[in-house]
Amino acid sequence: MILDLFAGPGGWSHALTVLGAHDVGLEWDEWACKTRAAAGHTTIRTDVAQYPTWPFTGKTTGLIASPPCQAWSMAGMRLGLMDQPLVHQAVTDLAQGRDTRTRLLGACRDERSLMAAEPMRYLYALNQAGEPEWVAMEEVPDVLPLWRQYAAILRSWGFSVWTGILNAADYGVPQTRRRAILLASRTRTAEPPVPTHAKVAEPESLFGPGRARWVSMAQALGWGATDRPVPTVCAGGGPGGGPEPFPSGSRKALADARDRGTWKRHPCSTGQKPSARAPVASPSGARWAWSLRSNNQANATVQGLDEPAGTLFFGHRANECVWVADPVDGQIHEDGPMPDPVRITAAEAGLLQTFPADYPWQGNKGQRFSQIGNAVPPRLAAHLLAPHLGRTLGPDDFALAA
């Protein structure tokens, strides 16, 4: 089997499905488990830190791990950085068969920090049986020093290992999401997958076609550069199963839209596969260029529709992603009011993570956004996993909205 620790809603799992394989996922979050079940992924709902390792020994070909990133992420308080010495100590101890997690956990500033050491507990047990054949792990960039510690241990056990930072946009993901990656193998030289895309398209050469330009949000969503996103109101998403509350500012946006008569419901909001639409002009003839603002903070990344998104992360009000508009000609039209910012929908966010348009996200709006933001982009995951499964992926071998 392929064991997937901290499996989430199925980023790695969907990639494996595309590659003709499947995993057994260990996941604690109730709604991520429900999403996985609806998507057809095998799941054990459990605490990875408490589940025994013996059921997997003698049966495991590959191990995948994406520990929770909240303790390390720039989107949070980053207490994991303060806990880093404790996590390194836990990895050292677990690699020698000593379980000191309880003592070390008591000294951690953030109890989630030590989850990054859990893969070593499984790796140590599996290694006693000469397993697994390969390993793939992913985390936020600040975890790279920890991956290098894992790498040193795995090399001492006979693995070839590569660690480094990869940009998801280089593999056709419409998002400049940078992640620390560890790839290890007992049977082949571990190395990063060859990038299929670049910030600037490359011309064909004697060595073959150049890399394609990074995939833009407009391409992934099926929009033109001036298409308008639309505010959506869905039933059943609020606490207790009631109507989903209006996002901040959306009541005004809906009222303005009704008055202007220019907003249209995007196919994503109704579960349909998105398709290109003709740009919509304001009554004054002004045309708006849309950008995605990654959060409400002063240093938020703002990317135009003709570019990939910045890193998508959710889970806190300050981390809301919103569509913002500017006039194409740079002029404010007095008789054509500028559209209000519109919060991104979960369907749109899922597409920008390269999940299929009809991926069966479960839970209310906040639960869906949390799953999407924490997931590994399936398209990146597929490129990381393909060599271990004897597959190769080209620029067009993994559909953005399958």
UniProtKB/TrEMBL annotation:
The keyword Metal-binding does not apply. Keywords: Methyltransferase, Restriction system, S-adenosyl-L-methionine, Transferase. It comes from the Bacteria. Pfam families: DNA_methylase. This is DNA (cytosine-5-)-methyltransferase. The active site is at residue 69. It comes from Streptomyces caatingaensis. GO terms for biological process: DNA restriction-modification system; methylation.
